[in-house]
Sequence to fold (142 residues):
Amino acid sequence: MAIERTLCIIKPDGVRNQNIGNIVAMIQAAGFRILGLKLTRISPAVAGEFYGVHKERPFYGELVNFMSSGAIVPIALEKENAIADWRALIGSTDPAEAAEGTIRKKYATSKGENAVHGSDSVENGINEVAFFFAESELINNA
Ligand code: CMP
Fold:
């Protein structure tokens, strides 16, 4: 299997609910390498750019408001099969449908406030990591 990158974002609800440590522990227990991690905040304009593919969706405004409502923690992750493995670890978008033991089952409260983000393809994993991190900021001891 190929080594892939995926972008985790601990969303404002995950930060507010003091779940940064719990989520990072699950990331490490699952064998992902953390290449970069920062506590930051994004403006509505930057959130809108990041979620540009969802511009036409009815929840776009709510998503942009929420993602710019407080601190977030983008985390650049790498491992074999990272895209699928990260999506399996985070669980379904709607926590009510998320499997037992997944991050969203444990820490999300709704479809919008769902604790974490994950990239949905290999190409988006590369692009989304680059959205938040310069290549020179990433630490790769592999
Ligand atoms: P994420 O994986 O970050 O990518 C797109 C986000 O849109 C998704 O997680 C959800 O947080 C959000 N989203 C999807 N469906 C809805 C919805 N029906 N209402 C609000 N937000 C949604």
